[in-house]
Design goal:
Layout: H1 23-37, H2 39-63, H3 66-83, H4 85-95, H5 102-111, H6 113-140, H7 149-174, H8 177-183, H9 188-201, H10 203-222, H11 228-246, H12 256-264
Helix pairs in contact: 1-11, 2-3, 2-11, 3-6, 3-7, 4-5, 4-8, 4-11, 5-12, 6-7, 8-9, 10-11
Length: about 260
């Protein structure tokens, strides 16, 4: 008789730990430590993300409206976890005491690419709905040149409220799900529910973490996208430590990416 499948006993979501308000600052410190420990692969990912961001921004400016540019810039903050799969793999290797290399991390990223692409499609759908909602705000609360200041204030207030709602949803969905894909063999529903549950149970520290991500991305854009080469891998490394400190996913087997990295060590 074959042994029972232990995956049947897995919970619907991985349990999470309670976080202190200072936890996000500690994640940034640990993320900086990983960046310094593996500067070449980390900054290579950062340069690639900065280049991709410049391309997307140029296309939006050339073919889109001001609202579309605003949505893309805002949404970038919360799509960042998808772009940081590489730094997750780097931090995972450092955590195991291994010396990460660009080749190993690219291979590990490829192992997680399928899950990341599926997750990206989910975020793309949310972003498209976000764009349509933004267009509706522009239609019902127009703020054309020459309009009174109150019209601009109303447009900005309602637009910010709509954008914040979508941003919070995406942040809750993506905060811990992508690192869980890299670390454990799990499905999208489990990872997403785990992430949302952890965010809702740690609202105050996760709000601090979201604000720190916004600040890091704002610094990147304020430096003409050049700063993204540093801030994006930093966010990625820190997000890995946020996941490891918050989520207890030990009940799930290691992912193919982690197994592949171990076999190459």
């Amino acid at each position: 008789m074959s042994a029972p499948d232990t995956t049947d006993a897995l919970p619907f979501a991985a349990p999470c730990r309670s976080l202190a308000m200072s936890a996000p600052l500690r994640w940034l410190q640990l993320g900086w430590r990983d960046l310094v420990a593996a500067p070449l692969p980390s900054l290579t990912y950062g340069v690639g993300i900065a280049g991709l961001s410049a391309l997307v921004l140029a296309i939006a400016l050339r073919f889109g409206t001001g609202w579309l540019v605003l949505v893309l810039l805002s949404g970038f903050v919360f799509v960042a976890p998808v772009l940081a799969v590489g730094p997750y793999a780097i931090s995972a290797a450092i955590e195991r005491g291994e010396r990460p290399s660009l080749g190993k991390c690219l291979a590990a990223t490829g192992q997680s690419l399928g899950d990341a692409l599926v997750f990206s499609l989910i975020l793309m759908v949310i972003c498209l709905v976000w764009v349509r909602a933004g267009s509706a705000v522009e239609i019902f609360f127009p703020a054309q040149a020459g309009a009174p200041g109150s019209a601009f204030a109303t447009f900005f207030a309602i637009g910010s409220a709509v954008g914040s709602l979508f941003a919070l949803v995406v942040f809750a969905v993506s905060a811990f799900s992508l690192p869980m894909f890299v670390d454990r063999r799990t499905d999208a529903v489990t990872a997403v529910v785990t992430s949302i549950n952890a965010v809702l149970r740690n609202k105050a520290p996760m709000l601090v973490w979201a604000l720190l991500i916004v600040l890091a991305v704002a610094i990147g854009f304020a430096t003409g996208l050049i700063g993204l080469a540093v801030t994006m891998p930093l966010i990625g490394h820190a997000t890995w430590h946020a996941y490891r400190e918050t989520i207890d996913a030990s009940a799930w087997p290691p992912s193919a990416a982690i197994i592949a990295q171990r076999s190459r060590s």
